[in-house]
Design a protein that fits this description.
heterodimer, A: 448 residues, alpha/beta, 3-methyladenine DNA Glycosylase II, Chain A, domain 3, TIM Barrel, 3 domains, 16 helices, globular, B: 315 residues, 8-stranded parallel sheet, 15% strand
Chain lengths: 448, 315
């Protein structure tokens, strides 16, 4: 939690020396509180005050980066309990488990899935983020060999999993430059794990038997100089694991309780053996505060809905997702296929394109850039009106694709039909249904 | 720094309502905390699943959704019984798809007769869902309310435009109503007030916030539902303390993704499991946002969600 100007003032030298460029220390403190000045502008501030002020300015849930380069993943940094209060910041990392007791063929199969299971949606590529490498054998050489193999196959962030600092060290031999997450420091091994994390500048996962013990352990590690941590409250029973997520988030945000101010890691695969149940458990943690979700395996049927759910829940409520402007072909349309136009609010696009698909009438859907507004809102804002639609219809090239000149506009934009007939003299403007669900019936009876 | 479990300051309680009648009646609502935050308060009645039945054979269902109901889809009574006998349904939701003026446009009398037959054949609570066409729903649901007097059906959706006429019938024949508004907390509150003014007792209202599934705008209803719970539980907004119903099955199973066969898009995995998961995960997300009654279709998706509810409420 940020300090107030007065609280900051108390930590300053109070000499009013003006070296910072402000007339008084109080004025400088006020600017600091408003984030309009940097503490470094004061040459006289004590080390103690510096530490206190930096600590106070730290976010309530520390952002942690796993991996290096383009595919580095940032988790944590959350500021609210409910997405409508502002937004959720960093989507949870989805990790695929690979263990060193798996046969080579299985490892290859998993690496292939990790690479191939990517999905395009509204111009975004949805894909998993991390590979979790588990030492089941406890054999250092075996683990190092696995890490080496995986490292060469993917640029993604890695999680090294073992209770033994020696095994983790062997893994680090192969991939320290990739800044993997080390899983996990426990009561027993914390000193050695902390040392490994510090020497290699890697984030450290911390695991304890319950939330209280976890807080004690992170406090100890923080004192030892570990900053980037990911926390595991140890519970593998769904109810306790769920409640722990909520308690950790609210302790960090509402109580500013630093020892729990870190992203979490959860293991749905350790809560059930049923793959479908594991997927539904994962969906709970996507919505409720998971930082990293490690899955025991990937299947398209479960990974895809999880990735889409994550996209939905982490969408900024203040900034609607938009679809790219252009011509969308649905079901291989030809020169006699109907042409519909709608706005580029992604939800509108999904509903309209879904209904066209349901109709099984191959069609062209023109998506007009309305800055992510729905048809009615865009119409009211002057972004889905005749003057805006007509130039788009002319330049998009639809006239070359169809032999007829009939344009179906949404029922909610019916009042634009007159204007459009003036702006697009070659075209006959047809008013379609108001509701998406009536599109199939409309299209089935449509004639070129 | 000693650790103390933080607690939300609650000041309200969700109203309890009784659905159906007799031994099989179901009580929902009564929460004094956010959904499943059992370390903070009580959730005396866990969320319930109502199994969906159509009043006409579905034309566009994915094979995975159709398969569990093979042989009964042309007979709503047989379908309803199968849900109860084979799949253990605790509640049913009869979707009056046949009355859609843009579809079969079946008349009110005929539709109400079908409802009556189903209502007479089962003892579990029965939800009856129209087509959200104001005029048609008014006609059909009024008839249903009259013909099924004494059954304590749950009829809807009641919207601002038809709430008076259907609401009056519901009061007259003692049926619970589904107050439905398009994903907007203020409109929802307003309709609840209007129903109160009309004389519908609080314990006969369940609220439909209008839901959509994963990939089709679930984030909107998710946040509206969360805001309703926040207003009802922490801001003493009595008109937002009603239990919530989510008619999610038809949304999940009409998406493009559940209709793609396994072979057509191998990256999307097994078509049947994909459909089941899309429905189950969407239902789960809505329960986390505050859903008290969830209308679902596939028996395996229902089983998954029920297992989650059991585990999340385990002592």
């Amino acid at each position: 939690m940020a300090l107030t100007g007065i609280e900051i003032f108390k930590l300053l030298p109070k000499t009013n020396c003006k070296d910072c460029g402000e007339p008084t220390c109080l004025a400088f403190a006020m600017k600091l509180a408003a984030a309009k000045a940097e503490l470094s502008a004061c040459p006289h501030v004590s080390e103690e005050a510096k530490t206190k002020l930096t600590e106070a300015a730290a976010p309530p849930i520390i952002p942690v980066t796993i991996g290096a380069g383009d595919r580095a993943l940032k988790v944590g940094g959350e500021t609210v309990m409910f997405r409508h209060e502002k937004r959720f910041e960093n989507p949870p990392g989805l990790a695929l488990l690979i263990s060193d007791d798996m046969a080579d063929a299985e490892v290859d199969k998993r690496l292939k899935k990790f690479k191939e299971l990517e999905y395009e949606r509204i111009g975004l590529v949805l894909k998993p983020d991390l590979v979790a490498l588990k030492s089941a054998s406890g054999d250092k050489a075996k683990f190092e060999a696995l890490v080496n193999k995986v490292k060469q196959s993917t640029d993604s962030g890695l999680i090294l999993m073992s209770d033994s600092p020696d095994v983790i060290a062997a893994g680090l031999n192969a991939c320290a430059d990739r800044k993997p997450l080390l899983y996990a420091a426990t009561e027993e091994n914390q000193e050695k794990m902390a040392e490994l994390a510090k020497t290699n500048s890697c984030p450290l996962a911390v695991k304890a038997a319950n939330v209280e013990k976890l807080a004690e352990l992170t406090a100890k590690l923080a004192e030892a100089g570990i900053k980037e941590m990911v926390i595991d409250s140890g519970s593998r029973k769904l109810r306790q694991a769920f409640e722990d997520q909520v308690i950790i988030r609210s302790a960090a945000l509402a109580k500013k309780f630093r020892p729990l101010g870190f992203p979490t890691i959860v293991f749905p695969g350790e809560m059930t053996d049923d793959p479908l149940k594991e997927a539904v458990i994962a969906s709970i943690f996507v919505a409720k505060y998971g930082g990293i979700i490690v899955l025991s395996d990937f299947q398209g049927e479960s990974l895809f809905p999880l990735l889409v759910e994550r996209l939905n829940i982490y969408t900024d409520p203040q900034r609607p997702l938009a679809t790219t402007e252009g011509i969308y072909e649905i079901g291989s349309p030809g020169e006699n296929s109907p042409v519909l136009i709608t706005s580029n609010f992604s939800l509108t696009y999904f509903i309209v394109s879904g209904e066209i698909e349901t109709s099984r009438v191959p069609s062209y859907l023109l998506v007009k850039d309305t800055e992510g507004l729905s048809v009615m809102t865009a119409w009211a804002a002057g972004k889905f009106v005749a003057d805006a639609i007509a130039p788009f219809v002319k330049k998009c090239g639809i006239a070359d694709k169809v032999s007829h000149r009939k344009l179906i506009i949404p029922g909610y934009a019916a009042s634009e039909s007159g204007g459009l007939e003036e702006e697009l003299p070659d075209w006959e403007i047809q008013v379609g249904p108001r509701e998406g669900s009536h599109i199939p019936a409309y299209l089935k009876s449509w004639q070129p | 720094m000693a650790f103390e479990v933080p607690k939300t300051a609650y000041s309200g309680r969700i109203k309890e309502i009784k659905l159906g009648s007799g031994d099989k009646a179901v009580i929902v609502g009564g929460e004094t905390c956010y959904p499943l935050y059992l370390f903070e308060g009580e959730m005396p009645h866990p969320p319930r699943i109502a199994m969906e039945v159509w009043d006409m054979p579905p034309q566009e269902w994915a094979p995975a959704a159709l398969e569990p109901f093979e042989g009964v889809t042309d007979d709503p009574v047989a379908w309803a019984k199968k849900c109860i006998d084979d799949y253990g349904a605790e509640m049913l939701c009869l979707q009056l798809v046949s009355t859609d003026p843009n579809g079969l446009d079946r008349g009110a009398d005929e539709a109400a007769e079908v409802v009556k037959k189903v209502a007479d054949a089962v003892t579990v609570p029965l939800i009856v869902w129209g087509t959200a066409n104001l005029d048609k729903d008014t006609e059909v649901l009024r008839k249903v309310a009259e013909l099924c007097q004494g059954k304590n059906l749950i009829i809807g959706p009641l919207e601002e435009g038809d709430h008076k006429k259907i609401g009056a019938a519901a009061i007259g024949y003692h049926q619970t109503v589904v107050a439905s508004t398009p994903i907007d907390i203020n409109l929802a509150k307003q309709l609840n007030i209007l129903l109160g003014n009309l004389g519908v007792p609080d314990e006969m209202i369940i609220v439909d916030p209008t839901v959509s599934c994963i990939g089709y705008g679930i984030e909107y209803c998710y946040s509206v539902m969360e805001r309703m719970r926040m207003a009802g539980l922490t801001q003493q907004d009595e008109k937002l303390q009603f239990p919530l119903i989510c008619n999610i099955s038809k949304e999940a199973w009409k998406t493009k993704e559940v209709h793609i066969p396994t072979e057509a898009e191998p990256k999307l995995g097994d078509a049947k499991k994909r459909g089941i998961l899309l429905e189950a995960m969407s239902a789960m997300v809505l329960i986390l946002a505050g859903g008290d009654v969830i209308v679902m279709r596939h028996p395996e998706a229902i089983k998954l969600v029920q297992e989650m509810i059991a585990e999340l409420t385990a002592k």
